[in-house]
Amino acid sequence: MNEKATPFPFPDSGLLEFPQQWAELRGECPVARVELPHGAHAWLATGYDEVRKVLVDPRFSRARAAEHENRRLTPAVILNSSLIGLDPPDHTRLRSLASHAFTARRVERLRPRVVETITALLDSFERREKPADLMEHVLWPLPATLIGEMMGVHPEDNQRFIAWSSMALAGPERLETATEGYENLKAFFGELIAEKRKSPGDDLLSALIEATDEQGRLTDEELVALSVLLLVAGHESTTTVFGTFIVVLTQQRPEQWQHLLEHPEDITRTVEELLRTTHRTKVGARCPRVTTEDVTLGGVRIAAGEAVIPAPDAANRDPAVFAEDPERIDFARAENPHFALGAGTHFCIGAALARMEIQEGLRLMLNGCPRLRVAVPMEDLRLTPGTPMRVLETLPVTWYVSRAA
């Protein structure tokens, strides 16, 4: 790599804006050389076809990127652990142990419990003094409660693991905080695993313990790391995007909120378009890969051992795939093959559950709080500092309570 490198990541553009540099790079050089803050160089893929290749081609290795000398390429310590830091066959072995709990059919059976949880949270929320923080009282506890129940976590421990998860997802500039959060989560699961070995339950963690003890399909270390990852991934991403969705629908595009009040059947399509256009991380990119052999990507020759960073947020706005103004949020968009939930072997294992939580959450908010509005000016909304996730610190809202017949 001898040509000049572009500094990366790009400056943060705010909650709803998308950095112009993405479109410029995608149009001029969909595979570009970039220089990272610590001085290392990598390739940044921004075109749809290029990003898809990085995500699905096994020559782009997550395990190589998670090795010691490459760990700082990844924006959070926890993202180098367990499933996210593995390639097949180890990745396949571990993922298969958990994936049965997240199939579309099994997730559909959870719908009554999802609705019950959201209803209880909203009922409690609506009794609060206005304005109230939707993040604290609804959007954080919703996915945390559900994934906690699936894993067999005691409800009284939810607040602790939410706090530790946020610490574990701290950026590389807060390595001590990230490490402390991750170690706390590992210790927490070490104790819970010991408890469930004595008294197993009808939950995912007990099933994973059985796979460890009776079937020998994973080690104790793998069991703890997988449990931590499932718990963190099972609530952080959902909370992150859901908060932004509410801001878009009530502030930026209130006509769509009104449309959904009259046409709730369009909630699914609305969620997919919001997934496409909402950037989940502050840098707009995902976990890097390292090539296992020489590869040609977008006409660029990449040598074995070089780092490649896929940027799904940029690919999701590629006009070659998303025609008719891909920068615009188009709630009537029929075809939506976005990468918001990944692709290939690392496609989000909890995608069906996350979609259900958001869809049912929107439906019940529209039904119960049709006049939900953000209670502060847009410029007063702040992203949580010190984390690569684009998650709101708070979301103060006001509302008018109604109940559909």
Automatic annotation (TrEMBL):
Recorded superkingdom: Bacteria
Protein name as it appears in the record: Cytochrome P450
Entry keyword annotation includes Heme: yes
Lineage: Bacteria, Bacillati, Actinomycetota, Actinomycetes, Kitasatosporales
SUPFAM superfamilies: Cytochrome P450
Alphabetical list of InterPro entries matching this protein: Cyt_P450, Cyt_P450_B, Cyt_P450_sf
Keywords in alphabetical order: Heme, Iron, Metal-binding, Monooxygenase, Oxidoreductase
Species for this entry: Streptomyces sp. UC 11065
Record flagged with keyword Metal-binding: yes
Family: Belongs to the cytochrome P450 family.
